[in-house]
Amino acid sequence: MKKYGPAALIVLFLFGLWELVSRIINLPFIFPPPSGVAVRFWELKETLVLDHLPSTLAIILLGLAISIVLGVSLAVWMVMSETAERAFYPLVISSQMIPTIALAPIFIMFFGYGIWSKVVVTVLITFFPITVNTFDGLKSSSRELRELMLTMGGTKKDIFFKVQVPSAKPHFFSGLKVAVTLSVIGAAIGEWLGAQSGLGYFSRRMMTQFDGAAVFAPIVLLSVVGIALFLIVKIMESKSMKWRKLK
Amino acid sequence: MKKYGPAALIVLFLFGLWELVSRIINLPFIFPPPSGVAVRFWELKETLVLDHLPSTLAIILLGLAISIVLGVSLAVWMVMSETAERAFYPLVISSQMIPTIALAPIFIMFFGYGIWSKVVVTVLITFFPITVNTFDGLKSSSRELRELMLTMGGTKKDIFFKVQVPSAKPHFFSGLKVAVTLSVIGAAIGEWLGAQSGLGYFSRRMMTQFDGAAVFAPIVLLSVVGIALFLIVKIMESKSMKWRKLK
Amino acid sequence: EEGAGEAGGSEEMQDVSLMLDWYPNAVHSFLYVAEEKGYFKEEGINLDIQFPANATDPIGMAASDQVTMAITYQPDVIVARTEQNVGVKSVGTIVREPLNRVVSLAESNIKSPKDLEGKTVGYTGIPLNESIVKTMVEEDGGDPSKVELVDVGFELNSTLISKRADAVVGAYINHEVPLLEFEGYQTANFDLTEYGVPSFYELIAVTSDKTWEENPELIQAFWRAAEKGFADMKANPDEALDILMANQETENFPLEEEVEKESMAILLPLMEGEQGFGYQEEEPWQETADWMKETGLIQNDPVIDDLYVNMPE
Amino acid sequence: MREAVLEFRDVSFSYSGKKPILDQFHLTVHDREFVTIIGASGSGKSTLFRLITGLEQEEAGTIRLNGEAVQSRHGRTGYMPQQDLLMPWRTVLQNAAVPLELAGMKKKEAVEKMTPLLTEFGLSGTEHKYPSELSGGMRQRVSFLRSILTGSNILLLDEPFSALDAITRLSMQEWLLDQWEKREKTILFITHDVNEALFLSDRIFVFQDTPVQSLQEVVVPLERPRTLRAMNDPAVLEMKDRLIDQLRGRGTVR
Amino acid sequence: MREAVLEFRDVSFSYSGKKPILDQFHLTVHDREFVTIIGASGSGKSTLFRLITGLEQEEAGTIRLNGEAVQSRHGRTGYMPQQDLLMPWRTVLQNAAVPLELAGMKKKEAVEKMTPLLTEFGLSGTEHKYPSELSGGMRQRVSFLRSILTGSNILLLDEPFSALDAITRLSMQEWLLDQWEKREKTILFITHDVNEALFLSDRIFVFQDTPVQSLQEVVVPLERPRTLRAMNDPAVLEMKDRLIDQLRGRGTVR
Ligand SMILES: Nc1ncnc2c1ncn2[C@@H]1O[C@H](COP(=O)(O)OP(=O)(O)OP(=O)(O)O)[C@@H](O)[C@H]1O
Ligand SMILES: Nc1ncnc2c1ncn2[C@@H]1O[C@H](COP(=O)(O)OP(=O)(O)OP(=O)(O)O)[C@@H](O)[C@H]1O
Ligand SMILES: [Mg+2]
Ligand SMILES: [Mg+2]
Fold this sequence. Notes:
The complex is a heteropentamer, with two copies of chain A, one copy of chain C and two copies of chain D. By secondary structure, chain A is mainly alpha-helical. Chain A has helices at residues 5-25, 34-80, 82-97, 104-111, 115-140, 143-151, 156-192, 199-208, 212-240.
């Protein structure tokens, strides 16, 4: 309680300020007061939670799952094989420099308005942090420890599982935390570009109805999704790294 | 040369494949061949480089600068004061869970079609990696070293500059690398939502003109910007961390 | 960027920013003609023309006073005003009948709205278009629930030719349709008004309540110049076309002269009513509002008088 | 008797939630004394130093430095920790110079001050190497040099020579004794080498079972300056054997 | 004579670009020998071990283990490095068990095998602690235990007892000698404690100036089993003095 006191105070203050400013400038269609958003959220709760949340959640989870599988596999491959590293690492890095997401409108043309075009956008935006963090984490393991394992006759596999994986965990989880938050953004952007349901779509659509409170309401839900995913990652992280708590 | 051989080969192969597939499916307006993109790029070079590049670059650089200044200051403040940490860290983390970018259309209404709405989008997307990496980096400094500085009568300031800053550097640069690539994406997304010039805007515009090659051409330039920024960060990184090379 | 300042000071130039509904094309010729010939200058107006990135930006930007005026769609103004109390009102019509069509590629073999059953229809993200499709399919004896609607943003033509949708609604008879034909695609299109949708004003000019209250002279001055521009455009369409072609956004939105010429021919008869350029009748407002209420686009009863004002003669 | 520069009065301490290490502990060290602490591994010797430096807080009792029970004991001792704790991003020279930097000394002056010391410590030629390029003993000497440069009157040295060969160790010991006399320092020295303890110190404290209440104390009966040969003196050899017995926990010294 | 388990023939080595450490170096260690290496800090002792374990590659010459010049020397020695190198994410038990895991032993069996050893090493009660909760000497003992558990016939111990107090050290030394005899190991032992070298080993090699060509060799003239008292024997004391002189670089032993 005491720990989060200051944060709670600031949040309260910010909400109060928002309510106040919003009432003063009185343009609810672009800047609704939080109370208005809350009311609208309540009114829309069924549509939001039952119709739009599931499709956005599906995009986020599928996108994350694909990114994790692909990103971790690629990172492992690059750590295992120097040729793979030399071939792919520059590509992964420079692929990130290419704002592939700017090509998202074209993916939509390619993959259609179904879930896949949005999953592709989500994967594109989350793949990089997972791959690079996992790879850097695997590489970050102490050279001394790896050498020691070698002298004990450890195989590449042993070194991988007993030294590199534990050393990579903190990095992997950092990457996953970034990816989780980006996945929410990716799904929302994907939905802007063409969709039939989803929270991002709904929000955008309410823009066209000048219903400011209804623009914010799905964002609130998206935030809840983001926070929930983040907390899940945090719990997994602290469960799998008990020894860190000692510090 | 030999070092990047495999990467270069793969890139060549990918381009070849792209050219081939593109010619086979023959839908140049959504999937132009690289040769077509190159030709179009050459034709458009002046508009792209003289008209659109400067405005995108301005957004990226302004956004990054603001993120760095705000992010680093906040991180330092949070490291210095436990109250600030307790007040802001949860906020920074949870602000990231909120897909603020989904509110970008509203920023446009607020800030108009000028440069600021896009700068805000860029800051929103780059602020998090910089702040969190800097903060984690400052915190990651070895407790033993900090204690040793204390026993030598080091002040908070000494510990900060002599232990925490050097320890934070690798983290800060990782964050900056992520931020640089996100800034390009942020600028492009910002421009989709409302702009009068800029590479993202131009690309989107060309979508409505069935001119696939011209959709890709500005993305090529954006990529060059991304790569250039990334390399600058890398150079700064290796200049400021010579001791790391020994490993 | 609001062009306020002290009202009517004829010496002082006042800034007026105007957001178009879309990129400059034939329908906007009158503006460019008036600008080119100095009619706006004569009225003391510095005109700044902007283009929107999203279909609803014009109303939003006008309502939040980011621009002085905007060109937009009549049904949108009704929704904004009655449902959300957005303070915008129409100050003149530009196109008096729907240009909006349901367009499909000829090869899709869609002969009437009924054939849309089981097909995918792309729209620009404005719910109005959903209601249009529903009304048309129903009127044609089909089941609207069997039509799948997807929001495709502004990417109407690319959606169509990349076959991501079988038809699109929101495409204009004077722009997308001739453009598709120009690119060599055979199309079929249906007129909304033939299938139960009332004839609404396709394009109108709006301003915020605030601007209208504080500075009606400015809007009137703008409209006088616009009318002069339109008169010239009507008298000499070729010259108007040349001026437009000279003012086009060459790189971002290049215009095909042929397409624009055709577009001009379609547009001219639709831009002027019996009472002249810009004059708004009550009937289309009332009819459209009634239809919108019927189809559930709006829940509240609109106050028609708040929706528009006519310029004094 | 010289005045007390370090005093523990009724000090109790335990790592949070673990069994206590000090229990109503007493200790007095006088000005310009050279005191050695020996004791079994894990008995709490390093912990004692952490308390003196103020890195850990006593749970009860008071610790007085130079006669005062100050609020913060930071910065009042020259502490050399058991691990070398060099900064990997600084060269040997830069690492050793940290305390001089903290005292605000100019870079050039610091280099001038350190160069002869580096030579005396057998580190010349490594000035611009990074810690990862040094051998274990070299790192230890850099850490030792750094603690010396704090200029404090109380030096706390935690196994400072454990990684040094006999010769280097001897020359460091001689250097230390020399400085101790010239500069009038008070030195607390942890070692597990009873010979070293006998050779260097005025008094030897023996850490026995935790929780420790007070330390067994041995006064070394040798004159200064001492020679290595004196270590082979039967009286010293006997004292050594007794100390070792003492460490085994059998019998007391006096 | 017993067969050679370790042979250096004309081995040259230098850290890339630095001045050479070994130059046409020769060394032979026989089966079941206990050999100690002493030498100045930074002279290349740890480097020698890195070469034997295969962590560094000889630039010229051959290194033969158990009579063969194998491709990879990894996994053929029990190596205890100078730093303890415990994995911070593993408890004491888990750290020590690494070599058993590598050999594919079941967890339960490993725990059973280790529990008595932990007690012998004075580590009982710390099984489930993490390295950051241990004292310096405790960490060193865990690292020692781990190298023992590799089960190799050649043990390379780099200053294994440097952080231990005299008693703990003595009991570890006795334990090591016992194991060495019972299990027929060959041990190479780096120390800077001449007493320790004399007490433990058959032969003592002295590392002098780099680049090293061959090592000065001293055969310890003591019978086994040895007692601590025997160390005070005048002959041994004299040998010790000579060794120290030797380390100083003056005169040769034989
Ligand atoms: N990784 C490395 N890179 C470059 N030089 C190194 C490296 N490791 C050690 N050296 C150098 O090699 C020399 C021998 O080092 P080594 O660690 O073998 O010494 P040592 O005999 O074990 O010393 P100590 O008793 O102090 O541990 C030293 O001069 C050291 O600076
Ligand atoms: N940070 C810590 N948290 C919890 N327990 C600790 C911590 N540091 C040390 N201990 C425990 O406190 C006891 C004393 O440790 P200390 O480091 O003072 O021993 P020491 O006498 O210096 O031993 P050594 O000679 O091996 O260095 C040990 O049992 C150790 O496990
Ligand atoms: Mg200790
Ligand atoms: Mg060494």
